[in-house]
Amino acid sequence: MSDHTTLVVGASRGLGRGIAAAFAQAGAPVVAVARTASALAELAAATSGIEPHVADAADAAAPGMLIERYQPRNVIVVAGATPPVRPLHQHTWETFSVNWNCDVRIAFHWLREALRRPLPPGSRVIVVSSGAALKGSPLSGGYAGAKATERFITGYAQGESERAGLGIAFTAVLPQLTPATDLGLSAARAYAERAGQSMEEYLQQLGDPLTPQGAGEALVKLARAEAAGLAPAYRLTSVGLQPLP
Predict the structure, then answer these.
(1) Is 198 inside any structural domain?
(2) Looking at the domain assignment, is residue 144 inside a domain?
(3) What is the pLDDT of residues 37-83, one digit of tens each?
(4) CATH number, residue 84
(5) What DSSP string runs through the chain?
């Protein structure tokens, strides 16, 4: 993958960090994008082949500028906000809509710019959504709906790529809840308490956890797969990717 420059948007923590490291270890030049300079510097120091770039992924100007500068063949969008964890009636509209105003906004701008540039034929755009898009997330406000919308608009982008003959493959990936990230750990604690279970009991129900390293390895495999065989979306668990219709 030495000629496949990969932009990882939201690379400073959690699954994004693991994905950036996995692509670099696979030989791809990686541009790690996030707002936190110290976390990016730490990532770049720990893994060769990673160039940190501090930027706000939600800035409408960022996708065009970064795509123009780095000319990536892979764009992976992982960035998003951590939702406030509370039941529906304890949300305000502002807290309920956090992920609509952040996660969906980020995905929209990056998908739009990938089509408008456009990226070169053969490029891959992977939007990391959430398994909550399939089953809901009653303690996370609008999170599940926002993540479902990320999946929808990734599919819309694939349709536009096909209509225009751009040769860009757009794919959504929906990871399972995992205590290996700060977001997942916070959610797991809240759902365990809601169910009257200990953390150990609740996590046992989830099975083997998805790790950032495992997520990264799965996405490298996805980026290497033949475009003709790609599903529009995938569920991602500790055992790997499972295609969704």
Answers:
(1) no
(2) yes
(3) 999 999 999 999 999 999 999 999 999 999 999 999 999 999 999 99
(4) 3.40.50.720
(5) -TT--EEEET-SSHHHHHHHHHHHHTT--EEEEES-HHHHHHHHHHSTTEEEEE--TT-TTHHHHHHHHH--SEEEE---PPPP-B-GGG--HHHHTHHIIIIIHHHHHHHHHHHHTTPPTT-EEEEE--THHHH--TTBTTHHHHHHHHHHHHHHHHHHHHHHT---EEEEEEEPP-TTSHHHHHHHHHHHHHTT--HHHHHHHH-SPP-HHHHHHHHHHHHHS-GGG--SEEEEETTEEEEE-
